[in-house]
Write a structure and sequence with these properties.
This protein is mainly alpha-helical and 102 residues long. 79% of the residues lie in helices and 0% in strands. It is built from 5 helices and no strands. Helix 2 packs across helix 3, helix 3 crosses helix 5 and helix 4 runs antiparallel to helix 5.
Length: 102
Amino acid sequence: MLLFCLVSANLAAAGGDEEVQQLGRQVQAAAAAILDSEIAGAMRAITDLGTVSRYYTIARGWLHEQLKGDRSIVAAAGVGEKPHLEARIRFLEKAIRAIDLE
């Protein structure tokens, strides 16, 4: 959501209300995809946001920080104790690779 706040303030100042709304929809879709990678179009939501050159760095940073946090939780809890986090780690790794390759 920080991404949306930073960019929307800049776009709103430039008079891009439609752009702000579109970015908001993309950020919300990406956030939902991160929370539940099983939803339809989860990877597409991430790549739609992460492959836009203006947002790539922030989107990749967001994914990277989520990945670090999830890895930390799994390491503290022990492998096999948090299967939903392990699945999300695999999804985040794939998502980062997908936007890096674009």
